[in-house]
Design brief:
disordered N terminus
C-alpha cells in the first residue's frame, strides 16, 4: 500500500486511493497557480519596464534653470563691475591708477581659469551621480565665495592678504559657475521634447541678461543712495552680501525638482562611465574643440561691452559713470530680447545656420565699433544696443547647441568644458587685451580683435554638424 508523506507519532500513515488522488489534484492546482503567478509577474515586469522615467513639470524645470543661472551670473557680474569701479582703490592702492585697473582686471580673469576646473569637477559628478545634486553644490560654491568677497576687508586693513584672498574667492566664483551653467542647460534640454530643446535651452541663457540687469541696477541704486566716498567705503559690499538671499531662493527651487528623464534612462541602461573626462577626450575631442572655438566670439563681444567699454567710457571718453551704466542696461534689454528670438530661429532653421549668420554680423560690428563708440552718448547707446543684440542672438541657442554635441554619459562634462574653455580663450583676457590694444594702438584695434575672433568662430561652425536632429533616448 502506498504511503503518504506525513507521519503521526513516528508511524507511517497508509494512504487510500482517494487520499492519493486528492494529493495529485492539489499538486496540479499548485503548479497551475504558480504558472499563473509567473505570467502575472512577467506582465507586470514588462509594463514597468516600458514606463518612461518621471518628468518634472515644465514650469518647475524652467524656473529652476532660470533662477539658478540668474543668481550665478548676478554674482559673477557684480565682481566685474566692482573690478572696474572699486577694487583698484580698495585692494591695489599702492599702484598707479592705470596699473591698479590692470591688476584688478587680472583678478577678474582668474575666474575664467577656474571655470574649466569647475566644469571637470562638477561635470564628473553630474555625469556620475546626477544633475540635481551637482547643481545644488555648484550654487553653494558660488554663493559662499560671493558673500565672502562682500565681507573681505581692504588693503588698508589686511595688507597683501586682501588682494590674495580676493583672488582666492574669485577662483571660487569661477569654480561654481563652471559647474552651474552646464547643469542648468541640461536640466532644461533633457526635460524637453526633441522639437522644444532650443526653446527650453534658452531659459538658462536668459539668466545672463537678467542677472546683469539686477547687478547693474543694484550698483546704480547704491550710487544714487550714497556719495562716492560712501560707495567706495562700504556701499559696494551690499550687492555681494544680499546675494545670500537669492541663493536661498535658488536652493529652494532646485531641491523641489527630480532628476532629468535622460539621465534616469542612462542610469537604467547602465550607460554611466567611470571617468567622463577621459571618455570625452578619447572619443569626443573633435566636437569639444569645435564647440569651444565656435563660442569664443560670444564671450569676447560680451566682456568687451560689459567690462572694457565701462572702463574706457568713464576714463578716456569722459562719459558719466551712472549714465554709462544706464546705457549698458538699455543695451542688455536687447540682449534679453534676442535670446528667445534666436531660439525660435534655431528651432526652425537649425543651430548652426542661426549662429553662423549672427557670427557674421559680429565680424561687421567689430569693424565699426570704434567710430560708433566714440560718437558721443548716442553712439555709445547704439554700440550697446547693437552689440548686445548680436550677443543675445548668438547666446540663445548656444547652450542647446553645445549640449547636443555630446551623448548623455559625458554631456555634462562636455558641454561645460566647451563653454568654459571658450571662456578662457575668449573672455578671461579680453578686457585686459582690449585695454592694452586701445592704449597702445587706438580703439579701432579693439574692433579688429573682435572681428578676428568672430571669423575664427565662424570657421569652426562650418566644420561642425547640425545638432537639431539629435535623437532623445
Amino acid at each position: 500500500m502506498p504511503l503518504c508523506f506525513g507521519t503521526r507519532l513516528g508511524t507511517a500513515i497508509p494512504a487510500s486511493p482517494t487520499f492519493n488522488h486528492t494529493l495529485r489534484e492539489w499538486g496540479t492546482r499548485s503548479r497551475i497557480d504558480l504558472m499563473a503567478e509567473r505570467k502575472k509577474y512577467a506582465r507586470f515586469h514588462s509594463m514597468t519596464a516600458s514606463v518612461p522615467p518621471s518628468r518634472n513639470s515644465t514650469r518647475r524645470v524652467l524656473l529652476a534653470s532660470l533662477a539658478g543661472t540668474t543668481i550665478e551670473f548676478f554674482d559673477f557680474y557684480i565682481y566685474g563691475m566692482a573690478a572696474v569701479l572699486v577694487f583698484p582703490t580698495q585692494f591695489f592702492p599702492k599702484s598707479d591708477p592705470a596699473a591698479a585697473v590692470l591688476e584688478s582686471l587680472a583678478t577678474f580673469s582668474i575666474a575664467f581659469f577656474a571655470r574649466p576646473v569647475g566644469a571637470v569637477l562638477f561635470g564628473h559628478f553630474g555625469d556620475r551621480i546626477g544633475r540635481k545634486a551637482t547643481l545644488v553644490a555648484s550654487l553653494m560654491t558660488m554663493g559662499v565665495s560671493t558673500v565672502a568677497i562682500g565681507l573681505l576687508p581692504g588693503y588698508a586693513t589686511m595688507g597683501a592678504w586682501a588682494p590674495a584672498l580676493l583672488a582666492l574667492f574669485r577662483f571660487g566664483q569661477g569654480l561654481g559657475l563652471g559647474g552651474e551653467w552646464g547643469g542648468a542647460v541640461l536640466l532644461a534640454t533633457e526635460n524637453a521634447k526633441p522639437h522644444q530643446r532650443a526653446w527650453f535651452g534658452m531659459f538658462p541663457q536668459l539668466g545672463a541678461p537678467v542677472g546683469f540687469i539686477l547687478s547693474g541696477g543694484t550698483f546704480l541704486l547704491m550710487s544714487k543712495m550714497f556719495t562716492n566716498e560712501q560707495f567706495l567705503a562700504f556701499a559696494w559690499r551690499v550687492p555681494f552680501i544680499i546675494s545670500s538671499v537669492l541663493i536661498m531662493v535658488g536652493l529652494y527651487v532646485r531641491l523641489k525638482i527630480s532628476e532629468t528623464p535622460e539621465f534616469q534612462q542612462a542610469m537604467k541602461k547602465h550607460q554611466r562611465v567611470a571617468i567622463p573626462l577621459w571618455v570625452l577626450f578619447r572619443g569626443h575631442f573633435k566636437p569639444l574643440a569645435l564647440g569651444t572655438l565656435a563660442s569664443i566670439s560670444v564671450f569676447i563681444i560680451f566682456y568687451l561691452l560689459t567690462v572694457f567699454c565701462l572702463s574706457w567710457g568713464v576714463k578716456p571718453l569722459g562719459i558719466n559713470r551712472e549714465l554709462l551704466l544706464i546705457l549698458q542696461m538699455a543695451g542688455v534689454l536687447f540682449f534679453a530680447l534676442f535670446i528667445p528670438i534666436s531660439a525660435v530661429s534655431a528651432e526652425r532653421f537649425g543651430r548652426r545656420v542661426t549662429m553662423g549668420c549672427v557670427t557674421g554680423g559680429i565680424i561687421l560690428f567689430g569693424l565699426v565699433l570704434a567710430p560708433l563708440f566714440q560718437a558721443g552718448v548716442w553712439g555709445a547707446l547704439a554700440t550697446f544696443c547693437i552689440g548686445y543684440a548680436l550677443m543675445g542672438a548668438n547666446y540663445g541657442p548656444l547652450g542647446t547647441f553645445l549640449s547636443e554635441l555630446f551623448p548623455t554619459e559625458v554631456r555634462y562634462t562636455g558641454a561645460s568644458m566647451a563653454f568654459n574653455m571658450s571662456g578662457i580663450l575668449g573672455a578671461s583676457l579680453a578686457p585686459y587685451i582690449a585695454t592694452r590694444l586701445a592704449t597702445s594702438f587706438g580703439l579701432a584695434t579693439v574692433g579688429w580683435y573682435l572681428s578676428a575672433a568672430a571669423a575664427l568662430s565662424l570657421l569652426a561652425l562650418l566644420f561642425v554638424h547640425e545638432t537639431r536632429e539629435r535623437p532623445t533616448p
